[in-house]
């Protein structure tokens, strides 16, 4: 009986790992013109805690935990660069899969994950 339980656990783990590998393969890296076309006039959000609005003129309006800040964005060397003043600034590779977005930065352990969508009204 223990062998059957162990076999079931191994099969379940392999299925879970396999799903992750398939999902990872669906992400593709955007180049500079694709980044501009994809995010200009759109927002990237986690759906609950934060949302970054990338306005067409290069203005970045960030909403995070009820706080609103402004900055600038631009595309440079096939990366999305953000200037948030005293908050975090930097450049990121942009990877997409459908409406899912990952902002990947060299040296970072994990990407910033979010959803790309039309902007929502916020206060």
Describe the protein's architecture and organization.
Helices cover 27% and strands 41% of the residues. It starts with a helix and ends in a 6-residue tail after the last strand. The chain is globular. Mean pLDDT is 84; it is low at 1-18. It has helices at residues 2-26, 32-39, and strands spanning 28-29, 42-45, 50-54, 59-64, 67-76, 79-83, 90-97, 100-104, 112-117. The chain has an 8-stranded antiparallel beta barrel. It has a single domain, classed as Lipocalin (Beta Barrel), CATH 2.40.128.640. With 123 residues, the chain is an alpha+beta fold. The chain contains 2 helices and 9 strands.
What is the β-strand count?
9
Q: Number of helix segments?
A: 2
- Provide mean pLDDT, rounded: 84
Count of spatially separate domains:
1
End-to-end gap: 58 Å
Determine the strand fraction and express it as a percent band. 35-45%
Primary descriptors:
single chain, 123 residues, alpha+beta, Lipocalin, 8-stranded antiparallel barrel, 2 helices, 27% helix, globular, disordered N terminus
Please provide a brief summary of the model.
With 123 residues, the chain is an alpha+beta fold. It is 27% helix and 41% strand.
Topology:
Elements: H1 2-26, E1 28-29, H2 32-39, E2 42-45, E3 50-54, E4 59-64, E5 67-76, E6 79-83, E7 90-97, E8 100-104, E9 112-117
Antiparallel strand pairs: 1-7, 2-3, 2-9, 3-4, 4-5, 5-6, 6-7, 7-8, 8-9
